[in-house]
Specification:
The chain has 771 residues and is mostly beta strands. Helices cover 3% and strands 55% of the residues. The longest helix has 9 residues.
Length: 771
């Protein structure tokens, strides 16, 4: 029995010296400035840029859209050295985008405290991820490396009208570049800390001038691990931990058969074979020699270290300009992903609590959209179809417990199944002028969804691995499968022989009003609703019904403003009510975390309110400062979750980003210096436990980027997390709490209290050439 305190906190509060460094080098999202350079003409005064976004599925100015949105364009992403989607959380208030627990490519996304932490099939995300308006349905592989990107938009608040289900927190839009029709080729290489070696090649080729273009992109990204697996039960394993080994490719064909018709077909594939990620033991093992490692990136394992995430998809877009006022679009996609992974929950060289798993997903989408704008009023309408299959299996191997308690070769709880969805939706949102200054927007979406689910769940008194059978001595007998526990008995013989079926429909409205004081100042207020799909429990151990959708009712009041040509202030106040929250509850003794009988319920209602601010100040023609900040205040209204809900997951009460951008003009091209200090307040890893929590911490990042006078050569140097802060971004807590406050063994018979950490200090250099 351990005598540890009943909370494990990762305390990395920043010091005064770190604060001073941060303020001295501070930076925010610096705009790209309208400028003019030449040998004989002086540079024009730099002014705030007009930033175009497609938050409402039409091209608009950021300052005219009555939505809380952060947008980073291609140049800004490159100058800041942002190479992966998760880094965007620093630049969007009240946003969490992090790599999930035991993998390198699975995304944990929360906006304003709304999201989904558990990536198991059947659970739906709370933040929608879109690539060129195509929905990425599963979190596996959603930690996207940026390739051939034009901009990324983070939309905060429910987007239930235009984007539909599973956007209760908001949406992240990844927008790739349309081709110019010119022949081009860009090659860039990166070297950096931990033997980082990256290669990216992008380009385009006109096949028929002004009519048919082919574009391509390829990236090969590799890096050694931040740590190692100190022990492994298997020979000949790659013992790198937190390494990276990934390639991605894109191919697109664009056709302009007429001035009013545009067609694009795209293919993309990503394959990530980085090792499964090992966690850091926050307590020493009771059952074997696995003390707390010296480095937070070191671990132990009894599983193979291999891991794979493969994503592949086709997408297509047909855009037809019927007239100057009316545009029609057809957007479609067909995507699939496969991800076998090995998650060692206990992180020891014994089979105490090992979970090898497989995820297998596919989906097809179709959307027909009509956009009309005559200057006085506009409308966006569409029909959307979604057909998705989400399947998987995992084996919770408790081998040590099986041998000790039952005298068997091992013990495995095997769970497999599918949670498939068919849905359709119709939507429309209109904006119209009431007066010269006052306008209104009103919209609604109706979604109808049917889900079919099967779950097989049972105990096997042996150690079982789902794919390769690497554990010696066990051969699954032919046809020996665990029983189906969730489904339908169609012939009344007491045997489940078909999926369980349920359906839900939802009407999600939005109404807003905007007042344009002058061309540079707008106030707006809105009400919107979003929902996260109803579902079945993918871990069901008995027949149980599906749960209703989660619903969020959100209210916003905001200001978009430019004060002169050098100061921009955007402020949003928000409040929301979150009802019918879906939680797994323990059946029977709620004080026993080793219980395996769990049931999914709509178990809680919560609310929150907060503020988000984004400021940009152009101090001189060369120097720009910025500040973005977010605050959220959370309240629990109904709490029937078991164990009870205590707070928000992965969501600090306060975040801010203070930044600076300086442009040095030289005879060989401009050098752009960027620096920022990003701070996240305290946060819990789990909503129902305070055993693992992260104290407030700050990150310091600096960059220098150069481009030659003719734009051919470019280079950049980036230093990230320069003070080498250690901060928790995920974990597992399978322990018991004793009456005296100490922690004892949990499921598997050991003290499984595990943390996963964000990247340490890294430095990398990129050099490229545009042909």
């Amino acid at each position: 029995m351990q005598t540890q305190p009943n909370k494990i906190t990762n305390s990395r509060c920043f010091s005064r010296s770190a604060c001073a460094v941060a303020i001295a080098t501070a930076m925010c999202s610096a705009p790209v400035f309208a400028q003019q350079t030449g040998d004989t003409e002086p540079a024009a005064e730099r002014k705030l840029e007009r930033i175009e976004v497609t938050a409402r599925k039409t091209v608009e100015s950021l300052q005219e859209v009555p939505v809380a949105i952060t947008s980073l364009g291609e140049q800004e992403l490159a100058e800041k050295g942002i190479s992966v989607l998760t880094e965007l959380q620093q630049f969007s208030p009240n946003t969490t985008l992090q790599t999930s627990r035991g993998t390198n490519s699975t995304l944990t996304a929360f906006i304003r405290g709304l999201g989904q932490q558990d990536p198991l099939w059947g659970y739906e995300p709370g933040v929608g991820i879109y690539i060129d308006d195509v929905y990425l349905a599963r979190p596996q592989g959603a930690v996207l490396d940026l390739l051939d990107v034009q901009r990324i938009e983070v939309l905060r608040g429910p987007q239930g009208t235009l984007y539909g289900k599973n956007t209760i927190g908001g949406a992240v839009k990844y927008v790739t570049k349309e081709m110019t029709g010119d022949t081009s080729l860009t090659v860039q290489g990166t070297v950096g800390s931990y033997s980082q070696k990256d290669l990216k090649v992008t380009g385009q080729l006109p096949v028929i001038d002004d009519t048919l273009f082919i574009g391509f992109g390829y990236a090969d990204l590799s890096r050694d691990g931040f740590g190692t697996f100190l022990q492994s039960a298997l020979p000949d394993q790659d013992l790198e931990n937190y390494n990276k080994d990934l390639w991605a490719a894109r191919l697109s064909v664009e056709l302009h058969p007429a001035d009013d018709l545009f067609i694009r077909v795209g293919w993309d594939k990503t394959k990530d074979t980085s090792n499964a990620k090992g966690g850091y033991r926050l307590m020493p093992s009771l059952l074997t020699d696995a003390p707390v490692p010296d480095s937070v990136f070191d671990s132990y394992t009894s599983l193979p270290t291999f891991n794979e995430v493969t994503l592949e998809g086709l997408s297509w877009l047909i855009r037809y300009d019927v007239s100057d006022n009316l545009e029609l679009k057809y957007i479609g996609s067909d995507r699939e992903s496969y991800s076998p992974t090995n998650i060692d929950f206990d992180n020891t060289a014994l089979d105490i609590f090992d979970v090898p798993a497989e995820y297998d997903d596919s989906n097809t989408t179709h959307e027909v959209q009509a956009n009309y704008d005559n200057g006085n009023w506009s409308v966006v309408s569409g029909v959307y179809l979604y057909d998705g299959e989400s399947c998987g299996n995992f084996d919770a191997i408790l081998g040590f417990l099986g041998r000790e308690a039952f005298g068997t070769p091992g013990l495995t709880r095997e769970v497999s199944g599918c949670n498939n969805s068919d849905s359709w939706a119709v939507y429309s949102q209109a904006s119209f002028n009431l007066t010269d200054q006052l306008s209104m927007s009103i919209g609604a979406r109706y979604t109808d969804e049917e889900k079919q689910a099967t779950v097989n769940n049972g105990l096997i008194f042996d150690n079982v691995y789902p794919s390769t059978g690497w554990i010696p001595g066990y051969v699954r007998p032919a046809g020996d499968l665990v029983p189906q526990v969730l489904g339908t008995d169609t012939d009344g013989d007491g045997v489940l022989d078909a999926p369980a079926v349920d359906s839900w429909s939802r009407f999600t409205p939005r109404v807003g009003i905007e007042y344009q004081v002058n061309r540079d100042l707008m106030f707006y207020a809105s009400y919107s609703q979003g929902f996260k799909s109803g579902t079945f429990n993918p871990r069901a151990s008995t027949q149980e019904p599906g749960v209703k959708p989660e619903v969020v009712d959100s209210y916003e009041v905001g200001m978009k403003s430019d004060w002169g040509s050098n100061f921009r202030a955007n402020v949003t106040l928000f409040a929301y009510d979150h009802s019918d929250r879906q939680y797994i509850g323990v059946e029977g003794n709620s004080d026993d975390p080793t219980a395996l009988q769990q049931r999914l319920r709509n178990a809680a209602e919560t609310s929150a309110e907060g503020i988000e601010t984004e400021f940009t100040y152009i101090a001189t023609d060369d120097l720009t400062f910025g500040l973005s900040a977010g605050y959220i205040d959370f309240e629990i209204k109904r709490n029937d979750a078991i164990p009870p809900l205590i707070g928000l997951s992965n969501t600090p009460e306060f975040t801010y980003n203070f930044s600076a951008n300086y442009i040095l003009e030289t005879g060989i091209g401009d050098i752009v210096f960027n620096a920022n200090y990003y701070y996240r307040d305290d946060y819990l890893i789990f909503e129902t436990s305070d055993l693992i929590q992260q104290e407030g911490y700050g990150l310091v990042n600096v960059s220098a980027s150069w481009e030659s006078m003719d734009g051919s050569w470019f280079a950049s140097l980036h230093g990230k997390n320069l003070t080498d802060k250690e901060y928790v971004i995920g974990g597992y807590d399978f322990v018991t709490q004793n009456e005296d406050g100490t922690l004892g063994p949990g499921l598997g018979g050991d003290t499984t209290l595990i943390g996963y950490y964000g990247d340490p200090r890294t430095v990398h250099l990129t050099v490229g050439y545009r042909f």
